[in-house]
Design a protein that fits this description.
The protein is of the alpha+beta class. It contains six helices and twelve strands. It has a three-stranded mixed sheet with strand order 2-1-10. The protein has a three-stranded antiparallel sheet with strand order 4-5-6, with no helix packed on it.
């Protein structure tokens, strides 16, 4: 059937998941806008423009940090697209005039204060991190989104999101399956996906259930 896609997950042990129309359908206007952007990238470069992009994003204080009157020592200087920087101030500095330590990234997103004029939401993160991944995937290349940070730093929110605030991965998937539906030229598309977690030097496959640990028996 034209436009039907199968999603292969994990290491292959989980088999295939058939997706019906209701699971991948997205707004046509949004889908066509993304199609135009990706088509332009593929025409200009054969795929997406970047091989690797490094992005840093700040998050709001959580309840505990607010109760402790935590000092915000970060400033994201992302106004200049050619000079995105993260400034880190020493919270124990004797003077606020002490110069910060500056780090440069491809993108520096300030998501600390939702009321601020420079606040960066999920859509902007997707535009920066997801469009190139989407274009590369549609071109047939392997693509990877790697989120790094300590527990509670906002990785899951940025990558997957919550409720209406969809993260980068769901947005990529919606657009990818919209593209598949849009073509209507092939009988079948196969999308291979892995979703891994690296924690305490152990790798977990999040698309497959974890096997039960069996007791180690030592034979004498």
């Amino acid at each position: 059937m034209a436009g039907l896609a199968a999603l292969k997950g994990g290491t292959g042990a989980c088999g295939e998941i058939a997706l019906d129309e209701g699971q991948w359908k997205m707004d046509e206007a949004a889908g066509e806008a993304l199609w135009a952007i990706c088509e332009g990238k593929m025409k200009n470069t054969g795929a997406a423009s970047n091989n690797i992009a490094v992005i840093v994003r700040s998050r709001p204080f959580n309840k505990r940090e607010k109760e402790l009157n935590t000092y915000n020592c970060l400033e994201m200087k992302g106004e200049d697209p050619e000079n995105n920087q993260c400034w880190i101030f020493d919270p124990e500095a004797k003077s606020k005039d002490d110069p910060p330590t500056k780090f440069r990234f491809d993108y520096a997103f300030d998501s600390f204060d939702p009321t601020a004029s420079n606040f960066v939401g999920q859509e902007q993160v997707f535009r920066a991190a997801g469009i190139d991944i989407l274009a590369k995937s549609w071109s047939g290349y392997n693509s990877c989104l790697f989120a790094y940070g300590q527990t509670g730093s906002g990785k899951t929110y940025s990558v997957m999101g919550y409720g209406a605030e969809k993260g980068t991965i769901p947005r990529i998937c919606e657009a990818l399956f919209y593209f598949i539906h849009r073509t209507g030229k092939a009988d079948k598309f196969v999308v291979d996906a892995c979703y891994l977690e690296v924690y305490n030097e152990a790798i977990s496959d999040l698309l497959c259930p974890q096997p039960k640990e069996e007791e180690l028996i030592i034979l004498s």
